[in-house]
């Protein structure tokens, strides 16, 4: 390596995210957010690993871990174990100047110094004293390409770097016409091309539909026999007429649109605004044309106010609809919840009723084992009344349930 | 740059492998993809139908969720579902407040596929007419209530 090379550092910066890798790296070393090998790996409290930049971006949007959705703050993010950092830094990447021709590949942690100090395709300052230009490192020992040299044909001063492109347009050199292949001096070429007899051109009446094409020099033979050209004057007239009619039609339609939606306004007689081509003015539009500009302003004003009101109403409508949807959802949710609650209550009441039945039955049976008779004992009165109470309760409970 | 690199990788993976019932229709431009999905079991609502999803990625993908809608094209309809409006807008919390940058096109497709597979109701969301008429293209504009945990 020549000493002049290594002494010149390139200022080209390396975007680690844009690098391409020699082999596809293990999936364990990929960041779950950018899907690239980790850059400055960090670890979260929940032990997930991301690029430092990726997780910061994600936390700005939502304070949760992207993988498991656990709550996470910026303080819960710490550098990943050094081993992980070493693994990703050792991955082999291709030189970012690969497209310019550098075939080097190296460990990722070395790529910045490769570009800064070694890469033959990185741009460095020109070696010549006092020259501010940049040059690829591999060319740095060549003569300075920024100094002006004289063009050998026109004696004009050009930078060496630009000589090649200058020769393409040097005024003392000639280039070929793309149509007739004749050589012409560069400054005269464009004048010739505009008029080259060999250029294939369309018939002058092609816009009326003539499909004929021929070299410019032969076009006169065609124009003598072309039917389209013979018809050109009349076609031209028709086209003009259609254009004016279209224009007139458009203005009339605009006025009609203005007049129809708002109430018709009385026409104050005053000088006619909007003078038009009188040859195209047929009688039909004469009444609408009497509108004064003042009135037009007034109509526009009304119209814009109307538009504004309409958009207001639309906006309100949309808001109402949105609220409706929300309310519907809320109501359905509430309904579901009530249903659930109701089912629970029904079950509870049923349970209570069962218990009550059991209690009543055991109460009825226990004190008077010979309860078959109709004889009235003091106990039975109590038991009977409690049975009635129980029945009533369960009945009313059932009614509630049915509701 | 960030979004592009990741989308290139996803596209590469998708061309290598996709789960059954999911296919790529087009991704000519890295910012808009179209994916085809199919419900694989015999759910009568969706049997033998192919539906087309459109993904729109912003520059901040995957930090921001992509905009995912069903699209109507020749012979392709919008599937019937209580969370899919008839203009193709999908109400899926995964694409809104529950988005996470570890999700990707494949996982979103699979979520939507299973959302269709598990559905039994041949209906649109409540307020579909109003929603479609109001011209919302994104459920983010409306505070939709994600009420159903079957999604
Ligand atoms: Zn986590
Ligand atoms: Zn990352
Ligand atoms: Zn290099
Ligand atoms: Zn120089
Ligand atoms: Zn010259
Ligand atoms: Zn020529």
TrEMBL record, chain A:
Pfam families: zf-C3HC4, zf-TRAF
Positions of the UniProt region annotated as Disordered: 260-290, 364-403
Domain of life: Eukaryota
Residue spans of biased composition, Low complexity class: 268-288
Record Gene3D superfamilies: Zinc/RING finger domain, C3HC4 (zinc finger) (3.30.40.10)
Residue ranges the record marks as coiled coil: 306-333
GO molecular-function terms, A-Z: zinc ion binding
Zinc finger (TRAF-type): 165-219
Domain spans labelled RING-type: 31-69
PROSITE patterns membership: ZF_RING_1, ZF_RING_2, ZF_TRAF
Alphabetically ordered keywords of this record: Coiled coil, Metal-binding, Zinc, Zinc-finger
InterPro entries: Znf_C3HC4_RING-type, Znf_RING, Znf_RING/FYVE/PHD, Znf_RING_CS, Znf_TRAF
TRAF-type domain: residues covered: 165-219
Protein known as: RING-type domain-containing protein
Organism listed in the record: Dactylellina haptotyla (strain CBS 200.50)
TrEMBL record, chain B:
Domain of life: Eukaryota
SMART domains cross-referenced by the UniProt entry: UBCc (SM00212)
InterPro entries named in the record: Ub_conjugating_enzyme (IPR050113), UBC (IPR000608), UBQ-conjugating_enzyme/RWD (IPR016135)
Iron-sulfur listed as a keyword: no
Record keywords, A-Z: Ubl conjugation pathway
Gene3D superfamilies: Ubiquitin Conjugating Enzyme
Listed Pfam families: UQ_con
Domain UBC core: 2-151
Protein's recorded name: UBC core domain-containing protein
Originating species: Dactylellina haptotyla (strain CBS 200.50) (Nematode-trapping fungus)
